[in-house]
Design brief:
Residues 8-147 form the Transposase IS200-like domain. By secondary structure, the protein is an alpha+beta fold. The chain has one domain (3-159): Alpha-Beta Plaits (2-Layer Sandwich). Helices cover 41% and strands 14% of the residues. The model has no long low-confidence stretch (mean pLDDT 93).
Length: 174
């Protein structure tokens, strides 16, 4: 695998985490709020530093690092916890009209990758891209902030609730 897509200690990274099958899970506030809650936990207790982020309907983009330098472990723990928690929330959500379909799809993707897992929520890859120049950092920041605008969700980046562009974001940014 190319060094371009690997975490290393002390780096600043642009990371993308994508739901299997590009399933639009975060179109529901309940599940997007769980992501914010879990990211805040990682920030407060595991040393994650998030500088920019956006939660789209089926993926998360972040510019992040770690105080101890181990972004890879934090992201692995985050994905493991949130996968289980969001599956649980879907199972318990009486108002989730897509419950059967969502659980079927997460089971389908699990069968293809691991006989030990009942569900697979996240794609395995994170595509960490090392950000080593100010120009590259600005490029990725603009990409993150304008993603909801390009998707036609909002007209102005600051109007999107699940983004670092929103001054009222509940995520504790670095």
């Amino acid at each position: 695998m190319s060094e371009k897509y690997r975490f290393f200690e002390g780096g600043l990274f642009f990371v993308t985490m994508t739901v299997v099958g590009w399933i639009d899970v975060f179109s529901r506030k309940l599940y997007a709020d769980e992501i914010i809650k879990s990211l805040n936990y990682c920030i407060e207790h595991k040393g994650l530093q998030v500088f920019e982020f956006v939660i789209m309907t089926n993926q998360i983009h972040m510019i992040c690092s770690a105080r101890d330098g181990n972004v890879s472990k934090i992201i692995k723990d985050f994905k493991s916890f949130t996968a289980k928690e969001i599956i649980r929330l879907i199972q318990e959500n009486k108002r989730e009209s897509r419950k059967e379909w969502l659980l079927y799809m997460f089971r389908y993707f699990a069968r293809a990758t691991s006989p030990k897992c009942e569900f697979q929520f996240w794609q395995h890859r994170n595509h960490p891209v090392s950000l080593e120049t100010n120009r590259f950092i600005r490029q990725k920041t603009n990409y993150i902030l304008n993603n909801p605008v390009k998707a036609g969700i909002v007209v102005e980046p600051q109007h999107y609730i699940y983004s670092s562009a929103n001054p009222n974001t509940e995520l504790k940014l670095s």
